[in-house]
Amino acid sequence: MSNTFSLHPQLAADTTLVTDGPLSHVLLMNDARYPWLILVPKRPDLVNFDDLSADDRKTLGDETATVSAVLKRRFDTQKTNVAMLGNMVPQLHCHVVARFTDDPAWPGPIWGVGEAQPYDEETGRDRLATLRADLISAFKHL
Amino acid sequence: MSNTFSLHPQLAADTTLVTDGPLSHVLLMNDARYPWLILVPKRPDLVNFDDLSADDRKTLGDETATVSAVLKRRFDTQKTNVAMLGNMVPQLHCHVVARFTDDPAWPGPIWGVGEAQPYDEETGRDRLATLRADLISAFKHL
Question: Which of A37, A87, A113, B22: disulfide with B107, CB 3.0–4.6 Å?
């Protein structure tokens, strides 16, 4: 246990920071198969959802709903998946993933299916810029 | 779209009602491989997490944290998974599952792995009674 927050090295290796909400880093997963964001509350020593304080739970819920709505709008889909698993990376983190009926894992969960496909440089840069603008705008209402 | 809530027939077929929180049914999944509860907010026409009102989001978060803490305590584990997927059953529902390093899907997600193992009558009845007592007690603090 430590008293300061630092991002788990596996999350740092797999993602790029998009922006920050009131509580959490919002990270873009480097996997072009899905529009896939991960929220990580910037609090030390969190493992499970019930480790959050009531106030932080509410804030994470507001952030998660905002991210879900942004993904639906930006990628023109009706479905997102929201999940806090953490069986491999223990630091509490919340996946928010836009899903499509023709994506490689549909209708199953995305975790553990196939191999990540890293973004090419231009596509990754564009996606990051677009989502950053969308989220900065949407977080103003929190 | 309809204006009254009714539980999706697939959830009704796969689960048994444990109790009700302030917002949600709490259902026991009929799969003896995992201690597996499902919360279903009793509101019509919900699909994604961002369809909930801000107040209902907060309540579902409080219920989910309570259920997670009850499962950890009752089954003496350090890990729960929380997920709202809904790719197959569109009605918004939140899985809360106690996980163990020797369970059949560890460390992967539980969905789509193998076949459900229905409880035998006595074990199912005991589990339901135990969780009902735990949750009724824990929900008093919400």
Answer: A87
